[in-house]
Amino acid sequence: MKKIILLILFAASFITAQEFRVVKTSGTVKAQTDTKEEWSNIKTGDVLSSETVVLTSKNSSVVINAPFGNFTLKESSALALSRLKKMTLDELLLALAMEDVTNAKKNKNNGKSRSTAVYGTEIKNDDFLSQETNLGVKKLNGAVQLAEGGFIESAVIAARETFDKYPATKMFAQYRINFASLLADLKLYDEAYKDFDDITKLKLSDKEKLEVNTKLENLRKKISAKR
Questions:
Q1: 58 shares its domain with 129
Q2: 41-50 long-range CB contacts below 8 Å, 24 or more apart?
Q3: What global pTM score does this model have?
């Protein structure tokens, strides 16, 4: 019961309304809110809510003014502005716990575990260029930039949400490796080990196999040292 209350309080903390101002745009930049399906062009001076997802095309970028300062979203990227915030490690752990609860509920309702049909398959051109997969990749690009900007905990959550919503993006090994490595950097060794072990189910290059196996071995040592 205590865990459920903590999860509810954590979820409520994300509802706080915030405003974001467009400082500068270059090229084609669009935005979408939860209340609208279509994407609309945005321009300098526009005020956006935390419910907005911002999308940049190739050779485009946008500078967003947030409560902490300015953030630049580079080309071919997408970002939910609700993720443009600092999180503590405890908040990340609670978010991961919420994800586990949600996934457990999904699995129970489906009567089976989450599908891994995308693992070990080649990415075909038409799939890569599909609208949903392309948007998912752009959201992963946005999550990478969050991490580069110091929003590591938020980046991890943004990436996991993307992998869950756009299953085809789970095939992109380097993104998976990147975000699993962030968990290891945060010393969340058990969580990182689980992710890296899952990555071994993907079709990996020899270089990626070596990297993943090396990470797993290092994590085994760190986990053993904790016990």
A1: no
A2: 45/21, 46/21, 46/22, 47/19, 47/20, 47/21, 47/22, 48/19, 48/20, 48/21, 48/22, 48/81, 49/17, 49/18, 49/19, 49/20, 49/81, 50/16, 50/17, 50/18, 50/20, 50/81, 50/82
A3: 0.81
